[in-house]
Amino acid sequence: MPAQFFKKLAVVSPLLLLGLAGCATAPEEKVSLLEQVRSRGELRCGISGRLPGFSYLTTEGTYTGLDTDICRAVAAATLGNPDKVDYTQLTAAQRFTALSSGEIDLLSRNTTQTLSRDSGGGNGLTFAPVVFYDGQGVLVRKDSGVTTLEGLEGESFCVGGGTTTERNLNDVMQARGIPFEPVKFETPQEREQAYLDGRCAAITADRSSLNSSRSGFEAPDEHVILDEGLSKEPLAPATVDGDDQWADAVRWIVYGLMSAEEQGITQDNIDERVASATSGADQENAALRRFLGIEGDLGGKLGLPNDFVVQAVRAVGNYGEIYNRHLGPDTATFIPRGLNAIYTEGGLHYAPPFN
Ligand SMILES: N[C@@H](CCC(=O)N[C@@H](CS)C(=O)NCC(=O)O)C(=O)O
């Protein structure tokens, strides 16, 4: 009998046996979200949509912010088009189910990386690199004269439900023996209104979120964020657990934005840098050629085009450009870079080697 026949039989027979057994089904092959995004031609991104500076619906009906630019960078790197994003606004309580149920491909929504959320026994997320190092703060009226948490003894705090904020507030106040009253809300807008109506003496939330809230107040200068911080809130995009290919792709797209900043590669000069590395002054710079996808197969290893970083930076700029566009000194939501500077400038953003 020809060898070819046995080969075929070896492949077919387990399926035949499964079929004859009647009750067993062959295990379904899992298709990575990277493949699904590509065949759909669109990235489904979960965002807040209510946080100026991070993700916010403009009057023109488009979303803007650091978190939405991460969605755009991922769409550019995977699909070659930053506009191919379908956004879903999610509250804190909705966000993890949206990811685990497959309603969204990527969660890019001021979400703190924690052990419980990362672990399989928790929300089953895989975190991409941190895109904003935040911390929990407290906002009060300036004329209250409050400068410490002790000054808020017995007062009520407006706080978002389903967040790390809620638990941190309990932990810190309990540890310091300060009685308080939490008043929970689903969205920042409800929380702000309650505070402005005098239903709580303070709002506690991520500093970024307090900053967004204050920027929208009629008289921002009448409100202050206390100096003391209640927690570390490293905010990171997340994908569903168990899809390594998709998680790796998202992780290295984010690193690409950071590495581009480190190397001075910007939206404005990227085409020049590509030309120079292809046949100009930089053509002997092998590391740069690999980073830009002119040489080697770095993108291919991730299932992405080799020029995926070029696509992303061309579309949204490097990490620093994204930051400045939404949180820089010329914006109403200005937050000094501090920990969010690239490591060479004294911050914490550090992309591993593109090797
Ligand atoms: N970073 C914290 C808090 C995130 C959070 O959702 N904060 C609320 C504060 S109200 C918020 O920004 N909500 C935005 C929204 O509901 O659109 C976490 O991951 O739990």
TrEMBL record:
Residues 1-26 form the signal peptide. Keywords: Signal, Transport. One of its GO terms (biological process) is amino acid transport. CDD domains: PBP2_BztA. Residues 42-273 form the Solute-binding protein family 3/N-terminal domain. The keyword Glycosyltransferase does not apply. The keyword Transport applies. Gene3D superfamilies: Periplasmic binding protein-like II (3.40.190.10). Belongs to the bacterial solute-binding protein 3 family. This is Amino acid ABC transporter substrate-binding protein. It comes from Candidatus Synechococcus spongiarum SP3.
